[in-house]
Amino acid sequence: MLAAAITIALAAISLAMLLNLWRLLCGPDLPDRILALDTLYINTIALLVLLGIHFDSLVYFEVSLLIAMMGFIGTVVFSKYVLRGDVIE
Amino acid sequence: MSAMSAMLLEILVSLFLLASAFFTLAGSIGLARLPDFYTRLHGPTKATTLGVGGMLVASVLYFSARGEWLSLNELLITMFLFITAPISAYLLAQAALHLRVRDVSGGADKSKHPGQ
What we know:
- The structure holds two protein chains of two kinds.
- By secondary structure, chain A is mainly α.
- Chain A has helices spanning 2-26, 30-55, 59-84.
- In chain A, helix 2 (30-55) packs antiparallel against helix 3.
- By secondary structure, chain B is mainly α.
- Chain B has one domain.
- Helix content of chain B is 75%, strand content 0%.
- Chain B is built from four helices and no strands.
- Chain B has helices spanning 3-33, 37-40, 42-66, 73-99.
- In chain B, helix 1 packs antiparallel against helix 3 (42-66) and helix 3 packs antiparallel against helix 4.
- The longest helix of chain B is centred in the first third of the chain and has 31 residues, at 3-33.
- Chain B is elongated and about 60 Å long.
- Chains A and B meet through helix 1, helix 2 and helix 3 of A and helix 1, helix 3 and helix 4 of B.
């Protein structure tokens, strides 16, 4: 039963990531694309946690923690760049 | 662990996984389908964050039952995401106001220049 639930969740998250990719490619404005990237990394964390349960391994935890930190910094830097035209003032 | 509690745990983890997959998908559908940027901001920052939080709770349950002691590592990611999601949403909204991204009524606010 757990395997079936993991398969359904994998399919749902893959679909979600495809939707994010679509918004990233044809988002009309710059903030739309930044938001799509933000959602994409959050979905990647979900996918990695799911794979960690599937393969019964704790290695994926470190990977998702790193992605969480780097993704947040990336979003902040992109927004700051749009706001100020410069990253480090 | 007895067979009964193992099955109970499996049901619980599966329920958490399915619920969080639903919320994650709902957030991304909101990102793809809503009409303008300011409404689109709601989907990922609320529904998707809740979905990832539920998935990490499922992971905590699973690995706590597998190992000898409580595995609370995943709560670190949950906490970090729950703290950072509003911050990034705030910064994105500020950036969109600065660029005067049009809203659902068709025109951006021209009365003043936000973000400065």
